[in-house]
Design goal:
This protein has 244 residues and is mainly alpha-helical. Helix content is 52%, strand content 8%. The protein is built from nine helices and six strands, in the order αααββαααββαααββ. The strands form three sheets. The chain has a two-stranded antiparallel ribbon with strand order 1-2. Strand 5 and strand 6 form a beta hairpin. The chain is elongated and about 70 Å long.
Length: 244
């Protein structure tokens, strides 16, 4: 089967715009992973998996392990950045007194530390969205979609903090807006359990856990795109297997 980036992939999802399969995904869910991203994942899927009943080559299996390790690295980085905001590391939720060159004192929140913390978060978030989009594992894709959709629902509040959701579902920082942001909004979104940041930590943790499990299973990619454990401890499988 030849896959062209201009093709309409709706045949995978049925004839209706809201078609869903047993995984609970709809066509709109796939489209929301990243603008055009389900095309990218499909292209990667067919590019890396040979047709027929053979298993992937050793080189392809190694590539799969490399991708899983990258997902783990990105998930860990995102969790660390989000947790730093959750617990107020570096005293970002406390006012500090500074003196200028003339000896004048001002008391305010350390906006530079806040900016650096949010930049680290955005960097980690974008990296995980990128690496997870290359996965064939439905659990990794599902949790990535949930994280993206949860971020979209909080888009208005994030924009008040200078964090913008771009068309490709990645985040960007508007520095001038960060420096003017209301700290109470920052606390609401990022500090403590139940916050937006804590939910991101949860999703990143699930993604990391799934990738770790697949690596421990010492699995192999099959010709159908499933990630199959060599000890048959269980399979996660390609998100697209049920459509093919």
């Amino acid at each position: 089967m030849n896959i062209n980036s201009s093709n309409d992939f709706s045949f995978l999802f049925g004839n209706t715009g809201n078609a869903t399969n047993s995984t609970g995904f709809s066509l709109s869910d796939y489209a929301s992973l990243k603008n055009g991203s389900y095309k990218k994942v499909l292209n990667n899927y067919y590019a890396k998996v040979p047709q027929g009943n053979t298993q992937a080559s050793g080189e392809e299996q190694e590539k799969g392990r490399t991708e899983l390790n990258q997902i783990r690295t990105d998930a860990t980085s995102l969790k660390s950045a989000a947790e730093a905001l959750m617990d107020g590391r570096n005293s970002i939720y406390e006012k500090v007194t500074k003196k200028d060159a003339d000896g004048n004192e001002t008391t305010d929140y350390d906006r530079e530390k806040i900016l650096d913390s949010l930049k680290n978060f955005v960097k980690g978030y974008n990296a995980l969205v990128d690496s997870a989009a290359d996965s064939n594992d439905k659990s990794i894709l599902r949790n990535t979609l949930h994280m993206i959709n949860m971020t979209k629902k909080n888009g208005n509040m994030l924009s008040k903090l200078g964090i913008r959701i771009d068309k490709d579902n990645k985040l960007s920082v508007v520095e001038d807006d960060v420096k003017k942001a209301d700290i109470s909004t920052l606390r609401t979104m990022f500090k403590g359990q139940g916050s937006y940041a804590s939910n991101v930590v949860s999703y990143a943790g699930r993604i990391d856990s799934t990738a770790a499990t697949l690596l421990k299973q010492n699995g192999t990619y099959t010709a159908k795109g499933s990630y199959e454990s060599s000890d048959k401890a269980g399979t996660s499988g390609s998100i697209f297997d049920s459509f093919l």
